[in-house]
Design a protein that fits this description.
- The protein contains 30 helices and 15 strands.
- With 729 residues, the protein is of the alpha/beta class.
- It is globular, with a radius of gyration of 27 Å.
- The two termini are 38 Å apart.
- The relative contact order is 0.11.
- The structure holds iron/sulfur cluster.
- Iron/sulfur cluster binds next to loops.
Amino acid sequence: MKEIEKLDKIAITVRSHKLLKELLHENPRLEEIMRNAKNETEALVGVQNWIMGYLKAKPDAYRYFVNKQTGRETFEKLDWQDYAAIRILDYIDNAGREFPDLNLRGEIAVSNPIKLIWLGVNFGTGGAKPYFFKDMLQLFRQFSGKATREIPSREKVLEWMERYPSGLDPRIIKLREENRDRILTIIIEKINRGEIKDDHYFFEDEKTKEEKLETARKWWKERLFHLRFAVRSPKLLNELLGNSLDPDTMKILYDAEKAGIPFFVNPYYLSLLHVRVPYFAIGADLAIRHYIVYSQQLVNEFGHIVAWEKEDLVEPGKPNAAGWLLPSHNNVHRRYPEVAILIPDTMGRACGGLCSSCQRMFDFQRGNLNFDLQKLKPRESWSEKLEKLMNYFEEDSQLRDILITGGDAFMSSDQSIKKILNAILEMAKRKQEKNKKRKEGEKHAELVRVRFGTRLPVYLPQRITPELTEILADFKTRASEIGVKQFLVQTHFESPMEVTPEAREGVRLLISAGWTVTNQLVFTAPASRRGHSAKLRQVLNDIGILNYYTFTVKGYMENNFMFATNARAVQEQLEEKILGKIAEKDYETIRQFPMEAELMMENINALRKYNNIPFLATDRNVLNLPGVGKSLTFRVIGITRYGRRILEFDHDATRVHSPIIHKMGKVVIIESKSISEYLNQLEEMGEIISDYEGIYGYSIGETEERIPVFEYPEYDFDVTPELSNLVID
Ligand code: SF4
């Protein structure tokens, strides 16, 4: 007997029985089909005929189901029952399909929910867990019309947003000063006792306690201080947090240390965590806290993590998962034709901290990455390598956009950044010269966009100095002269509480250099609480940042704790982000924003005020697919016995992809947590579950359209359709 067949024999629990009984009681037609079916096939056919009868009477929804008419417009016309009908029929169409479940280290998962109900009804077996039955109960309530969709009012969303103060709230600023002094006092004591020795930061002569604190407050303004005094152990972490972490958490952290997960929390970022929690900010720092405090699941899985981003695995001479040939092992990543990521061999390979849900945890596990900052300084050979990498960009027919990242691009020294920017500028000039000799229609794409990927405005805003600003401004002037048009710093704020006076000043400097600052939020469980992302969008707009992407957490079981389900990502998009929806008539206005980037804050404010909206919803909620590209176009096509949903994603039809997507087809993702588990977790965070009513119903997604502010400028010549550096078998 196959392992899977054995599972069918497993008796369901009392709780599962009760939920099943409720399901049948509420749905007499379902009960009749289940009791009369002599085998699973009859059960499937019976349910299929029933649901198809409904859907055929709804022509638009039917065409959507059979993939004859999809897209955002049709999606927005689907009603709540249509969602349920499509899901049930998708379950039936995919019944019995087997999928390797990478959350369970490759164990095979089978989806056959109707069979599980039939087994439960007739034999009390099937092994389906209560979370599975809870999902089914909600599904049939949605189909029968018992559960309807209530879109929260604008007032309600604003009320949810108000629960989260920002780091610019004067009361929070005061608390952070308290935190800073607490951390500094402990560091000073350690220096006094000789436990910490540093050749740059020390006290020369006998100073009073107050004088030492005053000196240390000056150190606090320097980037170097925070890198040198970053916490690298759970013991010190707890000490600097006033020993406020509970023993259970500490056990996990000690286990994490034993498992080899690095710790790197700089004092500034640590000061954003509350030790003394004020009544008005209870739970407000959770999105930050869970970026620092590792979960039990991460510790359990460390050592077994598999790469999510398959296209980042590069073998020299062989195309990556997206079909691109790359010039080196570790320095260039590429998914799309127009853009490639440049990862320099500099300190930029490191970050100002380690986000617990980072996709690069896989690389830390392999030992490829670390926080050994000395070793990460550029080697002699880097200059030659940089030339080789630039040649790749120069010779490629489609590349027009270069994203310098890492790690974190701003971890590189000013000197390194200058060198990279100069190399890019020279490359762009050479590319243009070569183009002059090419005929119309055969010309290569020229460089139009330069980007930095950095979280330092959040982790270490002290890094954004007038000197760095000068380098960026100078580059913009020189690159604009040769026709480069877009200059972006992509950062990564997770919480309104990360928007501090220091971060605001760092962002102001970047904007003053004429660069557009955009944000990519990772939609972690704490960041997914009602109103949290909406508030973050608002606070970021306040300081002149445009929101760019809201990413579902990637990865498998290692990120189980941080994962917020895709159903919640769709719900957030349709129920909260909708408040900042930009009318099409404003597209042209917003497209002009980066042209006068220095006025970004004023322009954002004017548009918000004119439309009376709290924020500009310029970001798209998406998942970075493990194959190629970003998308939130999916349907729930299956569910495991544990109630974890199986989603089938399509690629984002609104952007240019590697042609490999035609070969790859759709991408199946098994979520690492059921909706019920997610809701339980929210309850643990103090949320009221009824506020999330309707989440089970969001089983379909369609990627939002890109707001024109993020589109590439047009060329005044025709680019060759030829794709170089591409190999598709
Ligand atoms: S800043 Fe980005 S790359 Fe660095 S640890 Fe965080 S998520 Fe990972």
